[in-house]
Amino acid sequence: MSIKLNNYRLKGILLLFILTGISAAHAEDGYRLWLRYDAISNKSLAQSYRSAISQLVFPARNPVLDAAKKELRSGLKGLLQHQPAEVKTATGNALVIGMPQNNSLVAGAQFKTVLNGLGTDGYFIRSVATGGKNCLVIGANTDKGVLYGVFNLLRLLQTNKPIDHLNTADQPSVTYRILDHWDNLNRTVERGYAGFSIWNWHKLPEFIDPRYLDYARANASIGINGTVLNNVNANALSLTNQYLVKAAAIANALRPYGIRVYLSARFSAPIEIGGLKTADPLDPTVKKWWADKADEIYRLIPDFGGFLVKANSEGQPGPQSYGRNHADGANMLADAVAPHHGIVMWRAFVYDNNVPDDRAKQAYNEFKPLDGQFRSNVIIQVKNGAIDFQPREPFHPLFGAMPKTALMLELQITQEYLGFSTHLVYEAPLVKECLDADTYSAGKGSTVVKVLTGKMNPDLITGIAGVANIGTDMNWCGHPFAQANWYAFGRLAWNPAQTSTAIADDWLRMTFSNSQTFVADVKKFMLQSRENTVNYMTPLGLHHIMAATGHYGPGPWDNNLSRADWNPIYYHKADANGIGFDRTTQGSNAVGQYAPQVRDAFNNLAACPDIYLLWFHHLPWNYKMRSGETLWNELVDHYYRGVDSVRAMQQIWNRMGTYVDSERFTEVQQLMNIQLNEATRWRDACVQYFQTFSNMPIPAKYPRPLHPLQYYKDQRFNFVPGTGGSN
Ligand code: BDP
């Protein structure tokens, strides 16, 4: 008896050991992102996958194909607990992967047409019966296409999709799909909320942090093919040989995953590191300096992507400092990289405190007259809205207004204005709102996405950029759900037609669980989450009312920064008569920058959507809304609704413990508590502040604010992340 008991005890200890071993190997700290590759729990499904992929034909003779093969092998091993036999020619059910030049099946006549339409990055996946066996073929014209195809197959397995009758072909809708890192050489990250920069400049070039490879894998899995390593507020030192050698080491690490490296270039670098007296773009010595610099860079990084430039904006130097315009500056750099097939991404985020005009109008005013004057390897990088990555903005009027100029969309993945990394905000709906907006620039249906994807002018290069939310935090993005924004960015850059729902669905399955209940419930609140945040921060078209310093929390009363257009009161214009920025034809006439149909829709109160109301109109507090309520009551209602929806989200999440590992479950719970507190602060601060102008009561049905207005005004937050350590 006692021997038996000991035996049980031993077995128990052994079991415990194995279990802890397993969980330690897979500590769910979020590091694995959406590439977790845990065994598929549905046994019969896993078995059917195994028998469909009993053999593998995958000749891999270069670094990109090697990377794809390695990923496939580790994915299959994890998901199916199985390694298919590798064969030269399939003799059973097989996965056959290749390009026409290295695989006779892919080279066959049946795939000619599909391959012709795939371009460089596309791929097809097709189930075919050949010689009595079933083969699943992934084919592409290039190794990169193969890489993307492999990741797509893995996604199908990870999300438990059928793979027996596949017939898909896919290719990206834009050429340049880029992450912009606002990372400084000292490893602080401007507007970064997930730790320090992942680029370890001090230890480069010798030390290649394994994170670089996982970063590359994650990006390749969603189709991202470029990364700008350094902040747009650039330090000229990043263009010195000392740092270029380090950038080259990163480029080498990322290359097998199809990712090219770009650098933000400080326009005055010829003076700062080149010893020249001027950075005038028309000066021959300056031109030569940049041409030589480009040659030097390409010697170190043969596939260097090009430059990103923030010029004459927020104190950055630029061509205007020399009486030249943006085209002069961009073209000079474009000429320097053109012989190497590089591009210049020139930002349109410009506004000038000395120009007594609505900030929302200034980018258009400066860039529109230059339409058609940029070199063909220049792409103008335009933020989704005309102010600055706000929780909600109408689309930027430059989209559609420069038909002869390549424009790329700039999005902000990092949540500078969306609650940093403590608020759960799924950004795909925000992105879609911009992509689907109709510019009417060439009649109905001239959507932003058509402009971006070259449908309006096929001669132009195309791209989408997102400001990264990545740092050294173990889970990369600070909030487990912030990973969804990195993920969704890549998926939408690849294919803007995908829905927010479909992307959330995939991400949840890959990141957490394939359980129907889990996916359905959590997806629902993800899709709602951005609207929640708009409600408790900036409802009805309000914008830029966050605390002026550090942009953390509400600060609608702030009015002490040196520039008028950095202060919240500039934007909400609340007074005894009402609230909102009059951008109508009677006001700043920012509406006049849109095509007539859009202009009229925004200009006329009867047509202006409620979501943009106070963006375009200054209205009295008792203005009667569509709902029949006064503007004041409706504003208050949005703030309260926003907070309530955070609570609703918490309630759903609290039921999800059985589907999620305890680490991430608890982490999200704790972050949601922070979000609830901060949302409540936003609500109570804003409602009471605006009440000082409206002099109208908070309707009795709502709970009273937790503290008086002065309490919120008096709060100071030191060391807010993302400000480079300056406060
Ligand atoms: C603003 C950020 C600032 C950036 C700027 C930009 O607050 O840190 O430098 O955008 O895009 O939103 O250049």
TrEMBL record:
Enzyme class: hydrolase
Domain Glycosyl hydrolase family 67 C-terminal: start-end pairs: 477-701
Pfam family name, one: Glyco_hydro_67N
Record's keyword terms, sorted: Carbohydrate metabolism, Glycosidase, Hydrolase, Polysaccharide degradation, Xylan degradation
Any one Gene Ontology molecular-function term assigned to this protein's record: xylan alpha-1,2-glucuronosidase activity
Assembly and binders: Homodimer.
Family the UniProt entry places it in: Belongs to the glycosyl hydrolase 67 family.
Name of the protein this chain belongs to: Xylan alpha-1,2-glucuronidase
Annotated organism of origin: Mucilaginibacter mali
